[in-house]
Amino acid sequence: MKIDELDVRIVELFSEDAGIGVLAASRLLGVARATVQSRLDKLRAAGVVQGMAPTLNPANFGYPVMAIVSIEIVQGMGHVPVGTALREIPEIVEMYTVSGDHDVMVRVVARSNDDLQRVLDSVSSASAVNRTRSVVVLQTHFQNRVLPLFAHVGGAAERNAE
Amino acid sequence: MKIDELDVRIVELFSEDAGIGVLAASRLLGVARATVQSRLDKLRAAGVVQGMAPTLNPANFGYPVMAIVSIEIVQGMGHVPVGTALREIPEIVEMYTVSGDHDVMVRVVARSNDDLQRVLDSVSSASAVNRTRSVVVLQTHFQNRVLPLFAHVGGAAERNAE
DNA sequence: GGGAACGTGAGCATTGTGTTCAGCCTATGG
DNA sequence: CCATAGGCTGAACACAATGCTCACGTTCCC
After folding, report:
1. pTM, whole model, 2 decimals?
2. Does residue B82 sit in the same domain as residue B127?
3. B23 in a domain, yes or no?
4. Does residue A14 lie within any of the structural domains?
5. Does the keyword Glycoprotein apply (chains A, B) (predicted)?
6. A45 and A86: one domain?
7. What are B61-112's pLDDT values in tens digits?
8. B34 and B70: one domain?
9. C1'-nearest nucleotide to the CA of B36
10. Between A97 and which of A45, B11, B124, B139 could a Cys-Cys bridge form, CB atoms 3.0 to 4.6 Å apart?
């Protein structure tokens, strides 16, 4: 997928406000409506843009506390059973299988520090979980900040070879 | 902010496809259009819904490799200079200040394992960074999965969703 | 009971959508 | 050197959705 500056500008506009609409975007960018439409279609078809979704902030509906938990699973168990077990815990908002000392890393949210204890316990008590180590998030600098990278890719198209 | 089942159903609909529109959502839910509109306004005003944004997937525009890096900063330096230094690296898509042995945790993406080396080096060479430890993400189970938690808050705990 | 907050259904003018089309430009390749 | 393909344009069209406002019926609680 080749991404140029127009693609970047379109995505930036829709990131500010997805409700902007194809027509308004085309006017702001000084291009034809059909162009914006076809670019969006292509970006979506390529999977670059997965879709448009409302951004939910757990901190604003009762879950201001966040922690990152490294999980070590018991030897001999695949990572699949852990995955299915942990999937049932709604407080887990992110989950990866990773290399290194630990096997799984998750990000959890909680209502309070007290509540975090409960969440961590529910993680620990999942089957196939051996040991956990958790750190509390003190400050969120940014989350899911993909736009600068995307702009970098789009801008590098002219200056650098790919 | 009090969240009821209608709020959850509205957000679920818009999460599937934010372009669904207020009118179509109201028809699917069997409520008046003005109701959906006012609910959305309130959710947005409360900050529960931050906005609607296109979901970008770095894996689909050239960055399929992902890693999580724990960073220890040099004693005596505040976390602010590290933050500003790391902010300049577009490959960092997530950044937290955390408690525990390490001080900062970031999630980075890269074009390949080779490229990951370059990204990690650029992190390590940031000012105030003392030591880093990184793990490679082998599998992404889910990212930013807030809907189940939101549904849980909305009193849909008894109900089996999806 | 009074009042506030909420949901309803309806109305209105305006605007955006999806779709299609022919024409034009530029880059690429025979 | 010309031919072809792909992208962008601007326009057209019917249709649908939007933002806004309103009067009215509930429900809940002071």
Report:
1. 0.90
2. yes
3. yes
4. yes
5. no
6. no
7. 999 999 999 999 998 877 788 999 999 999 999 999 999 989 999 999 999 9
8. no
9. C7
10. B139
A27 and A13 both lie in a single domain: yes
Nearest to B146 among A46, A56, A68 (CB): A56
B76: containing domain: 58-136
Is the domain of B132 the same as that of B119?
Answer: yes
Length reported for chain B? 162
Contact B108, B69 (CB under 8 A): yes
**Structure tokens belonging to residue B80:** 């602010």
Closest chain A residue to the Cα of B20, Cα to Cα = A52
Taking CA–CA distances from B102, the nearest residue in chain A reads A135
Which among A18, A62, A98 has CB closest to B18?
A18
In a domain, A68, yes or no: yes
Provide the token pair at B18.
């934010």
